[in-house]
Write a structure and sequence with these properties.
5-stranded mixed sheet, 31 strands, alpha+beta, binds zinc ion, binds phenylalanine
Amino acid sequence: MWRARDKHDISGDMLDVQTTQPPPAPTVIHRTDYREPDWLVPDVALDFALDPAATRIRATLSVTRNGEHDRPLRLDGDGLVAIAVRVDGVELAGDQWHMERDALVVPLAGPTHVVETEVEIAPERNTKLMGLYASGGLLCTQCEAEGFRRITFFPDRPDVLSRYVVRMEADKARFPILLANGDRTAEGDGADGRHWAEWRDPFPKPSYLFALVAGDLAANRDRFTTMSGRDVDLAIWVRAEDLPKTEHAMAALKTSMAWDETVYGREYDLGQFNIVAVADFNFGAMENKSLNIFNSRYILADPDTATDADYDAVAGVVAHEYFHNWSGNRVTCRDWFQLSLKEGFTVFRDQQFSADQGSAAVKRIEDVRMLRAAQFPEDGGPLAHPIRPDSYLEISNFYTATVYNKGAEVIRMLHTLLGPERFRAGSDLYFDRHDGEAATCEDFVRAMEDGGGIDLTRFRLWYQQAGTPRVKAVLAWDEAAARATLSLEQTVPTTPGQPVKQPMPLPLRVALYGSVSNAALGGERLVVLDAAQGSETFEGIAERPVLSINRGFSAPVVVETNRTAADLAFLSAHDEDPFARYEAMQQLMIDTLVGAVSTGGADHGPVIEAVRETLVNPALDRAFSAEAVLLPSEAFLGDQMLVVDPDAIFAAREALRRDLGAAMQSEWRHAYDGARTNRFEYSPAAKGARRLRTVALGYLAAAGAPDAAALAFRQFGEADNMTDRQGALGVLANGTAAERDTALAAFYDRYRSNPLVLDKWFSTQALSARDDTVDAVAALYRHPDFTLGNPNRVRALFGAFSANQRAFHSPDGRGYTLLADMLLALDPMNPQTAAKLVPPLGRWRRFGQARAALMKAELTRIVATPGLSKDVFEQVSKSLA
Ligand code: PHE
Ligand code: ZN
């Protein structure tokens, strides 16, 4: 019999158990404290009686003692109250188990037992979106990293792998579809209009990969036959009205399944693969075994509502989650410090996949731009950490650009060092050796060493040291000896907790160009700088050489060179490596703008000439040209300066934009007209044309061309796709023309019932270069369509706003106050999403005294607030330290 405990125990907010004691000081978890689990759980059966207001969960765990010890069984819980506890079929008395904080502790005598618990939770009141929660009429779960303990008592750590049997029962009318991991093995109808389904997952998995969905969903169904002939039923589950928007995701899924077979030799391992789209989700998507759950923004796409960038993101995230089936699920992580083992590797895999589907050059530019926008600032600020962190308060805070994107760069360096064949030998060995295991980053590196035949002793520093290395590269030419010498010097900056750094192995792809012949002087070399200093000689260099270095961004570092503006302009026109070509243009722009900020004026001539040459070069594809002619972001320019002056950067950048626009008006018009298409088509060429068109429009507007607003308004009105429509809206939103308000209102009216598109309406305004953007954001915060309940909406407004450097850093500090007010309102509901938006305030050291003081004051106000979550507390306190 299941004994119901005193009802009062489970009243109140079930998700935050009320205690009279003050909350315990948060404990720091250290990587080196890892210990094997005391108890293993080879099998678990879960029984869900689903109801949004009160869901009952019965869990039956077969537990086995792991090693010789007499420690009790400790089951993690988070806000759970045990209604009953049974061991081997016998109900335990209240003194035979106890709670330690949120964990349930049961002393056990033998080597194996069957332990049963029963709890009740209220998914509809779960605003944290961790555990079992309600979203748009659905019930769904999110367990990574530590959400499973909000559903049932369990050793909620990734090195406890179990086979799951899940029985779920719900009202049939409200929840006709019942999904969980693995394959459905039985289903049936129950009493009172309820029905049930049973799902079994034969692959042992950690609790963070558990998932369940119940709701009224429709499926886009398809099939895939794997390379060994296994037939897989594919389904993408959405609200019925969204079905037409799932074609692109389905195509991407099938392409990624085939790609992983070809490139990594990995095939799918079950008869079903399900994807569910949900509207309220803290991250992008989740790789639960055979039941991926997605933020709907990474599934739904059609030309009317999704931009080309959205299409690319959908394909990239679908591939990413699918690839996790091997890099993450079949081989999982031993502990959360190893997170980059699955995330860095999987991001690298999805980057390779996307590069293979379209323009590899443009994809690389986008990836590096993203790294510089999100990871470099993190690596240079108070929250810097290695890709394998050493400690944390709250693991959710470590789903970072460092773990993901720098982690991917580290894998990419291995790929560069080994070459594709040996890299594949290493990855094959890794998957073979560790299939079914919970592995470490060290296991991965060792497999690469053994399979690839390379010594990675020093390379391991990339897992240990935080901070973006800086490389000084000086090329000297001895004309008489016809010899060029490249001198290299690296420094790894100090980061919190890591005052002393060692030099790391940096694989730098290098080539020299002849400034007279305009040709490459010999082939490309891979120079590995693995000490503080190094040099490389090039013989037979009979003309003045120009240095092309870190081609393809082969190492995630900052390179400083002694190249002149003329050298950079030369490379921007002649380098055969498209990334290096883009990079040379960026560096020329940076040098010009940084010079302008410090001296108050600059010669725009060289940039204008280089941009002109790129724009009119018929050999370049439009997608590349569009990227190459864009100025670096204000934030990236700020990163180049000791003290960021947002207003000066904005002014210098706008002045250059204006001059570029004005000096090249006819070229921009030509590009604009030439990139016009008749009907929407989703192809690399058409995407490139759309991209260049809006970039050209932006320059015409920057030049103050009298017809720019009319052109933009016409593009806005005539567009048969969201890329052109939002592009035009973005250009209008920066200006003051009457068309601006008309277009914003029309956009709002057309899409007010589509939350994903309404997000664009919010972010377009928050990104505006206008002087009154802070006021606009303050008003949008109070707009009836703004809600703290939906993470996408929060990020659409505040993520965009804090990326708008000049607006966010408004000298009066109103931007800071606005963000801090929002964070304090959001934290009690959804600490994870709140914590992710803290870092912009944490960058106070990089700004002048006045701004720094205002930013610190907001951080201090936040940290002084009683009842703050661990998530926000960790981010804010580290930012102040
Ligand atoms: N593991 C997910 C991914 O990268 C991200 C995620 C983390 C989602 C935590 C939800 C919660 O694919
Ligand atoms: Zn991932």
